[in-house]
Amino acid sequence: MMIVMKSKPVKQKTVGRKEITHERIVEVAARAIRRSGYDGTGVADIMKEAGLTHGGFYAHFASREALLAEAADRAGAETVGLSERIAASVPPGQALPAMIRAYLSMAHFEGIETGCAIAALGSEMPRQAPEVRRASTRRIKEMIDVVARELPGWGTPAGHEEALTIVASIVGTMIMARAVDDPKLSESFLEAARKKLAPSAL
After folding, report:
1. The domain 64-201: what is its CATH number?
2. Other beta carbons within 10 Å of 179
3. Domain limits, the chain
4. pLDDT digits 0-9 by tens, 68-112
5. Which of 16, 54, 102, 181 has the greatest number of beta carbons closer than 10 A?
């Protein structure tokens, strides 16, 4: 005979209007910093894009830097999350080439607003407030770890070094591809890096 145990209902945490609004502001800011850069992203513009008044900003954030730190964290988390989903969607052994191809794709090249925050904002990071740099650094380390887990030398100093090299290479390639005003040269940067770093894709 099977006995059915009645469990107590689990109390779900309700998300209030303030939390929802806060999330919307951070989401808008995470896109804005990648699109316009840290210096080109103003509080008034973010609030307007989020459909809110400028005056409500300080109900959610202590300062502009606090918002930028959360936006940097959100943008970095999106990149890490996408890489993890790509790795989980392919057979074992194909995760790293798949991540590299996705990163060095034309879709990512064109999608700066939703793409990797490091490639979009790397040159601006040294001049940002400590909390912004801290958030970015944490996500960069996570990205390195995602790559390292797919390497044969995972857990070794050599594996970590290889992961550092791969991340630096793909980020640098994307920065160079976006920096030039020659579409053919942009494509050449991406294609050359794909050939070098993910030869199985060809």
Report:
1. 1.10.357.10
2. 11
3. 64-201
4. 999 999 999 999 999 999 999 999 889 999 999 999 999 999 999
5. 102
